[in-house]
Specification:
single chain, about 425 residues, two-stranded antiparallel sheet, mainly alpha, 2 strands, Growth Hormone, Chain: A, 2 domains, about 5% strand
């Protein structure tokens, strides 16, 4: 019992740090970019996460299978990611008006090594739990939820320390990354499987699962997964600059939401942690189609409430938008992964999950950020107000365009996707 508790505690620490690294900058980076004159390029910094997610996790998976144990590769990737993130922070510190190409290149190299660590940390956890004869389905979710806790704590620290509009958020992320890089080699040992791990690059990237597109129902599901994946990173990139922009209005300038936009936004992650626990009940009772429809409806409300809310009397709309985010994110990402697992053969199950990631966090999120960037830059501009810069303009039109898109996807999914309830029970 003590050994199992110790193992769980070690894995909790790993998950806490894993997502704390990400939370230090993910929801506040747009504020910093705007403050140094790079606000119009915000979408590229978020789109590149999806671009590298198309191939880097698969490539690192091959390395972990054949040559470097997963726990050591996890540490190496975090070390390199932290090194490049610290370099981006140093460049921001020494250059008041950083060049886009330079800071974007350093940031891209950092996230290229960070994104694979999400899958690697899962592999380490599953291996450790299996070696301890524990139930991964039962014992992993309570461990994984501490990743969200770490993300929230990191967000709060960025806000309360005054880093949300400065380069220090990159330093914070790098500091946490170096800690995890040192900690990772002490985690449960993951064996190298040279025999069973002989996967081609195409298999590791999930490309051999593209034959699932021959099945009409699965093809429709993957296409809509990509269309819904468009929404995944939009609020992470633009929500806090949007809320902060109310500072130009004397009516809202001193409200809690404006002063601590990152903390207000962290309600989204709190909702996400809670909604994970609802998925088994809703899937059993309503089936995958209705659960996915709930997620799509939640995205409509997520964007629409931003379009009509404000940090003053309308702050309840912001709070409600944060609450429905848990449904929007979890009921899509986790339920979708379960659907793929239940509806694919065992010999391509891992590849099918890779394909789901490519369609959502890869293609969908990348295309979504490029389109969102064009829309946001059309309706808003970064302007100087006193000593600070804010992204001001017709934000309501921006959010309502996103809500309309989510509504169209919802209607089309309702019409075209047919559920076979017996396959998802």
């Amino acid at each position: 019992m003590n050994n199992k508790f110790l193992l769980q505690s070690r894995l909790v620490g790993m998950n806490f740090l894993e997502f704390a690294v990400w939370g230090a900058y993910l929801t506040s980076m747009g504020n910093y970019l705007g403050s140094v004159g790079l606000g119009d390029y915000t979408f590229w910094f978020y789109a590149v996460q999806g671009i590298v997610s198309i191939f880097m996790p698969g490539l690192m998976g091959i390395v972990a299978d054949k040559w470097v144990p997963a726990e050591r590769l996890l540490g190496l990737c975090h070390f390199l990611a932290a090194l490049f993130m610290a370099s981006a922070g140093y460049y921001g510190m020494t250059t008041p008006e950083p060049d886009f190409v330079t800071i974007f290149s350093l940031y891209t190299l950092s996230v290229a090594f960070f994104m694979p660590t999400i899958a690697l940390s899962n592999s380490v956890a599953f291996t450790g739990l299996t070696q301890a004869n524990m139930d991964t389905v039962k014992d992993f979710p309570p461990i994984r939820v501490f990743g969200t806790v770490g993300f929230i704590c990191s967000m709060w620290a960025t806000d309360l320390l005054g880093f949300k509009s400065t380069y220090e958020q990159f330093y914070s992320s790098a500091f946490l990354g170096f800690i995890l890089a040192a900690y990772a080699p002490t985690l449960p040992k993951c064996p190298i499987n040279k025999e069973g791990g002989k996967k081609t690059i195409a298999q590791a990237l999930g490309l051999d699962a593209f034959k699932l597109f021959k099945q009409k129902r699965m093809a429709i599901f993957f296409i809509f997964s990509m269309l819904l994946g468009v929404s995944l990173q939009i609020t992470n990139s633009y929500a806090t600059p949007f809320i902060s922009s109310f500072a130009v209005d004397e009516v809202y300038k001193e409200t809690f939401g404006v002063q601590h936009s990152v903390i207000l936004y962290s309600l989204s992650q709190i909702s996400e942690a809670c909604c994970i626990l609802l998925i088994p009940f809703f899937l059993r009772r309503y089936g995958i189609k209705r659960v996915m429809m709930m997620a799509m409806a939640a995205w409509i409300f997520r964007f629409g409430l931003f379009g009509f809310g404000n940090p003053g009397p309308g702050v309840w709309m912001f709070i409600l938008s944060m609450i429905v985010y848990g449904l929007a994110f979890d009921f899509f990402n986790i339920s979708g992964a379960l659907f793929v697992d239940q509806n694919t053969d065992g010999n391509i199950r891992n590849s099918a999950q890779g394909l789901f990631m490519i369609m959502t966090n890869g293609l969908g999120a990348s295309l979504g950020m490029m389109a969102a960037g064009a829309i946001v830059n059309h309706f808003t501009t970064w302007e100087q107000f006193g000593s600070d810069k804010f992204q001001v303009g017709n934000w309501s039109a921006v959010w309502l365009i996103f809500a309309t898109y989510a509504l169209i996807v919802f209607v089309l999914f309702t019409i075209f996707f047919k559920e076979q309830r017996s396959a998802t029970k």
